[in-house]
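Protocol step 4 of 5: obtain the predicted structure for the target chain.
Materials: sequence only (see below). No template structures provided, no constraints applied. The aim of this step is simply to have a reference model before the mutagenesis design in step 5. Sequence pasted as it appears in the construct record:
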Amino acid sequence: MNATETIDIVDSVLAGVPGKQRSSFEPGRLEVDAEDVGEIDEARRRIVDFDATTGWIQTASDIVTPEAFEQTTTPVLCAELAHGQRSLHIRQNGAGGWTFYTIDRRESADGSIIRTTDILAKEPFGPRLHYEVEWRPSTSENELQSLRAHTFRLVGEST
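Step 4 output (C-alpha cells):
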C-alpha cells in the first residue's frame, strides 16, 4: 500500500464521522539516525553546529532557546531542535553521555504518512510547538490493517 492509498482509507473512515473533514495527513516518513556522545564539549559543539532555527534545550538550571544556548554553562539534560526538514532530539543515555537522534523527513516509500500536531508551550516558546508524527501501516496476525504512531519530530513553533 502506498501513502496515497493509506490517506484515502483514513479519509473514508473519517467521512462517516459527523462534522469531520478530510484528514490532514500527507505522504512522508521520518528517518532516524542515533549516535552516542560522551563528552560535554562535543555535545555542546554539536548543538551549536546544528544551527537550529527553533527548539528548546533543557539544562540543569533552565530551558533555553537555541539562540541563548551559547551563554549557558550548565549541563544539558535534553533538547529538541529543528532546522528545515531535519530535527535533532537529544536525551541522556544513562552512561554519562547523550544520544543524539537526527530525524530527517523523507518521501514515503511504504505507505507511511505524516500529520502535524501542536502542543501548548510556555514562554519563551509558543504559544504552541509543532510536531510531525509519522504513522505507519501495521498488519496484525489476523491481517487487520491498522496505523500506528512510529516517530515524531519537532518542526517549529507559532508566535
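Step 4 remarks: The first strand starts at residue 26 and ends at 27. The chain has one domain: 3-16+23-158.
Proceed to step 5.
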